Amino acid sequence: MEARLDLHANPLAGKLFKHFNAAGKVITESALPAATQELVKIRASQINGCGFCTDMHTKDALAAGETQTRLNMVAAWREATVFSDAERAALELAEEGTRIADAAGGVPDEVWANAAKHYDEDQLAALVALIALINAYNRANVLVRQPAGDYVPGMFG
To answer: What angle do the packed helices 11-28 and 121-144 form, to 10 degrees?
Structure first.
């Protein structure tokens, strides 16, 4: 499989993704736990069918010390016993925020309230930004059919 457009070589895409990456750095440096960040990125990427991001974030999570068992269970997090209540709240918010078009009223108040029980305002801001950003990355990669499977942790800096 070959990408329809090389987002890594296109100058305009390069400028755009430089800003995406800067936003990602702000989120990475936030107080939102790193493990939660990776779990959210993986779950949104699974929902969106983004193989490139699913590959990247599962490999990054493993490299950072995440367990294979937890990564195997992300798609079935509701039935899994390996996630904390806070992680489950973040995964639920990520799902609802990713599937926003499926719910006429957007993200339900109960989902937001559950996340707000576990995260302070700065962490919630990081979580909202993270969900929006990973969805943007997913959509770009799915649109161009970015091939997946060759990612190596750290290859982008």
So the answer is: 150
Distance CA 92, CA 123 (A): 15
Residues 6+ positions from 130 with CB-CB distance below 8 Å: 27, 32, 37, 40, 41
- For residue 48, give both structure tokens: 């969106």
What pTM was computed for the model? 0.95
Q: CA–CA separation, 138 vs 123, rounded Å?
A: 22
Q: What is the DSSP letter of 157?
A: -
Q: In sequence order, which residues have a C-beta less than 8 Å from that of residue 128 and are 6 or more positions away? A: 97
Q: Which helix (H) or strand (E) holds 119?
A: none
**What percent of the chain is predicted at pLDDT more than 70?**
100
CA angle 103, 139, 53 (to 5 degrees): 110
Q: Exposure string (b/e) for 64-103, b if CB count within 10 Å is 16 or more?
A: eebeeebbebbeebeebeebeebbbbbbbbbbbbbeeeee
Identity at 132, one-letter amino acid code: A
The band of 139, judged by pLDDT with boundaries at 50, 70 and 90, is very high
HSE, CB side, 13 Å, CA atoms: give it for residue 53.
26
